[in-house]
Amino acid sequence: MAEAVLIDLFGLKLNSQKNCHQALLKTLNAVRYHHGAKAKFLCIMCCSNISCDHDNCELETSNGLSAFLREFETVSNPSMAASLYTIKQKIDEKNLSSIKVIVPVHRKTLMKAFIGQLFTDVYNFEFEDLQMTLRGGLLKQPTEINIITAQELEAIQNEIETYLRSLPALKGELTIITSPLIPDIFIHGFTTRTGGISYIPTLSSFNLFSSSKRRDPKAVVQENLRRLGNAAGFNVKKFYRIKTDHANDVWIMGRKEPESYDGITTNQRGVTIAALGADCIPIVFADPVRKACGVAHSGWRGTLLGVAMATVNAMIAEYGCSLEDIIVVLGPSVGPCCFTLPRESAKAFHNLDPGCVRLFGSPNPYVDIRKATRILLEQEGILPQNIQDQNQDLNLCTSCHPDKFFSHVRDGLNFGTQIGFISIRE
User: Fold this and answer.
1) 243 secondary structure, DSSP code
2) Is the pTM value of this prediction over 0.85?
3) Which of 145, 338, 366, 405 could form a disulfide bond with 398, CB atoms 3.0-4.6 angstroms apart?
4) Rounded CA gap, 176 and 408, in Å?
């Protein structure tokens, strides 16, 4: 049984039907009868001005319907994008995922296209034909459309993008943390959680990663990214994220892209590369001499596997960089105050340096992945003064600061994501 039921009256044409409201009342009553007892959310979606041609037949003012409609939540907007996104917010507020959509046959394909853009695999949809029975037979509707053309899909995407752009930023202003070590020939920074449009508590508000397991669709993440590009000054059409595998593979841009990788390097101007982080460390690398840069995603596994130095070594091999010229900045991550590992896994950090582990004798010692990363970089020849892992909010624990950062440790599976990014100015 569906947890939420949506009745689509957005494109309903009731023109010249004298008993249209009686038919609609009958249809809604049947929905209430079948779903009202178990569904936690009954909703009608309609256009701002659905009406019949004949006098006194507006949906919102009809005496016969007004009292009955109070048992349904009505969402009325001029655009499909605005209506469905509003409904999505109401569904998410109730933490529902099983949704039945009762939709006119001719609008089913269109509805599925909008849903595909605004929802993720977290939600389970089923569809039922909306039929309106009048005296003398069914209400005549246009025939079913089975295919959405590329042009129509583009129009749907444009409508959604336009609506999302109109939404105000949530939870404060967009904030970018930068490092004074990296010169101005680069655009770089680390994001925080404020200034975006993601409204789900654990993703609010500047979530920058979409997954089939999360409730933020790609369209919302893309709008957050667009706002970041405008604020930082980079081209979002030339933006590349790491495809995380918690290992040490590095993609040297220009070569064949691996299926997964936790580091990227480039010397292409105007291309922005980014490492994800939500407790794991987003690391940014810059060589102002050779004008090359890199990013890495370093969790505890990647730290031990040496993903940071793997990225450095890729820059040396591909662009002729020198160890003494490479600057490394560690973005915000979980601190040793909040991050524990089973003692067996913590052993490797203790062997690296006992200072990386607290309460080593306990079953779940506290581990400092930031300290371990610095030690590994220095051991391989990165100059200590060229590593920044402190100051300017960079060393704040992501788990301890819910006002500033997302955290998987703190928020569980439906966690948001911040990034570290860098590009060479054109």
Assistant:
1) B
2) yes
3) 405
4) 20
CB contact at 8 A, 282 and 419: yes
Nearest to 171 by CA among 134, 203, 214: 203
Rounded distance between C-alpha atoms, residue 107 and residue 142, angstroms: 9
- Compute the distance between CA of residue 19 and CA of residue 139 in angstroms, rounded to an integer: 11
Residues 6 or more apart whose Cβ sits within 8 Å of residue 73: 41, 42, 43, 44, 90
CA–CA gap between residue 363 and residue 353 (Å, rounded): 19
Q: What is the pLDDT of residues 12-70, one digit of tens each?
A: 655 445 566 677 788 888 888 888 888 999 999 987 654 433 333 345 445 556 666 67
DSSP-based three-state secondary structure for 194? coil
Cβ count within 10 A of residue 160 = 24
H-assigned helices in 166-306:
218-232, 300-305
Q: Are 342 and 366 in contact (CB under 8 A)?
A: no
- Encoding tokens for residue 138? 């069914």
Between residues 106 and 192, the one the model is more confident about: 192
Alpha-carbon distance of 418 to 278, in angstroms, equals 6
Q: Say which residue the tokens 């939870």 belong to.
A: 171
Contacts of 215 (CB under 8 A, 6+ apart): 92, 120, 122, 123, 200, 203, 414
CA 345 to chain centre: 31
The 10s digit of each residue's pLDDT in 184-223 is 999 999 999 999 999 999 999 999 999 999 999 999 999 9
Q: Which two three-digit tokens encode residue 36?
A: 């009202």
Largest distance between two CA atoms of the chain: 86
Question: Poorest-confidence range of 29-33, 118-122, 131-135, 400-404?
Answer: 131-135
Tally the C-alpha atoms within 13 A of residue 336's C-alpha that lie toward its C-beta.
Answer: 19
For residue 106 the two structure tokens come to 């001719």
Distance CA 366, CA 361 (A): 10
SS (H, E, C) 93-154: HCCCCEEEEEECHHHHHHHHHHHHHHCCCCCEEEEEECCCEECCEECCCCCCCCCCCHHHHH
Structure token digits, residue 226: 């667009």
Identity of residue 267? N
